[in-house]
Structure prediction request, 164 residues.
Amino acid sequence: MEWLLQLSREAPACHPVVLSAMPEDQEALLALQAGAKGYVHLHAAPSLFREVAVVVEHGGLWPGAGLVARFLAATTNLLQRSETAGRGDISMLSARESQVAKAVAAGLSNKEVASRLNISERTVKAHLGAVFEKLEVRDRLQLALFLSAGARTPRKAGAEGGDA
Prediction:
């Protein structure tokens, strides 16, 4: 790929696209790192070449399907790990805290949660504070995201619990 590095240095306005008879993710990555703006199978359909040309002409990159799939998988994995890293588990919540957390994550206001669970708004706020602390979330949005990310539900007996 030395030729590609040289081309990138000598003709920065050039937008090279590498064609490969046997595309491989590693080769694509090396080509892009060396300055290529695209990486495509040599025998791709003409319509794909036109798409690549449009993307590259507008300043975009065309890394190829293999690299895009790997990038998405890696990004998804990192996001899932970072969303839950260091955070508590919903099973740490009391039954009532769990009920409050789920209701708030579903979009209910404190007043609506209090009415539904037959407790005071002040008690809802107390439970919510405990939930935020135990799950290490800052606000209602993070709580909703945490719960929607597949947090485990409590396995405690007596799921109804009392007004604490």
Notes: The longest strand covers residues 17-20. Residues 25 and 70 are 9 Å apart (CA to CA). The chain has a mean pLDDT of 82. Residues 65-84 form the longest helix (20 residues).
